Amino acid sequence: MRFTKMNGAGNDFIILNNLEERISHDRFPDIARILCHRRLSIGADGLMVIESPLQGGDYRMLFYNSDGSPGEMCGNGARCICRYGYEVGLAGETQRVESPSGLVIGARIGRRSYRIRLTDPTVIDLDRPVDALGRTWPCSYIELGTPGLPHAVVPYPGLSGLSMDDLRELGKALRWHPAFPKGANVNFYDVTAPDRLSELTYERGVEDFTYACGTGTGSTVLALTLLGKASGQDVSVAVPGGELRVTIDRDGGAVKAVWLTGPTNIVCEGEVLDESLHI
After folding, report:
1. pLDDT tens digit string along 231-258?
2. Considering the entire predicted model, what is its pTM?
3. 71, 158, 224, 246: least CB-packed within 10 angstroms?
């Protein structure tokens, strides 16, 4: 079984091309749990699988979190998949990638820089305060695509001076909070300058902080734009793994598109020999 490992701003993935491997879908949750374990195997935030398109796209993307649970979509993963698809000849510089939550449009900006149109927001609630750990936290709640990928957007002044350890208990409490029926990816942010912010995301399915979350970054900038705290034009977001940029296209008050741009990195390619898989 061949694999490619990539990361997008530190959000890392194992990519399997199932057009070639022909692996049964019922095996992917177990493969994700085993290969994504950072001490016992390759290690990654998630598993990305390339499949044949079903609705006229260039190809289809399946995503599994590191705990084996299926994901609706992954923004940084989609950017990595677009680079992979371009470099192996599955599509050209502009791509149409099918995902479980809808069609993703990708574009090659440069050799390592890729831009995608995230799946459209289907739920936008800018005022959903949540009680956790003895206080009330102001939150916005956004779902992208259908089925919706859920995100809580939480302001946290002074975020840049904190570590993941400082926020882990709160991240876990909000991720599982009953105010979010599906659970939620929790995106803490701090506006550091006009159209510049820092962000830290506690991701469901990983059940910890990651170095970046593309859909979380898009959701955070979307919320700030609608709240009048960002212009929505090429907003810079500093995450532990680097920098992502987001643009929100609007038509009056309606959101037309959420665009995410950032770096990709091909880390390694090779053959999976992990004996725990019983290949």
Report:
1. 999 999 999 999 999 999 999 889 999 9
2. 0.96
3. 158
